[in-house]
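Question (not urgent): is this output format expected?
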Amino acid sequence: MPLKKGSSQKTISANIGEIVRDYKKDGKIGTSKPKSKAAAIKQAAAIAYDKAGKTRKMANGGDVIKKPKGVPGPSRVVKKKDGNRPVKIY
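Got this back:
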C-alpha cells in the first residue's frame, strides 16, 4: 500500500506503521534488509519524516540552529561532524 501524503503527526505515524507492517511481512524495507526490528523502525521513521518534508530533529525539538544574519540560503543550519569537531553547513 502506498504511503499517505501529508505532514501531520497522525499521517507520519500511519506511514511508520505501514512500513513496519511491510517489514514484518517481507523482512525488508524496499530493497534494504534491516538486521533488527529496532533498526527497521528507525529506518521507517526516517522514510516517513522524509515523505512529510520534515526532519526528526525538528519534530523532536533537537539541534536546530538559526543562521546568522546576512548569510544567504535556507533559514536552518545543519550540524555535521568533520572528524572530532562540529561543522556548520548553511
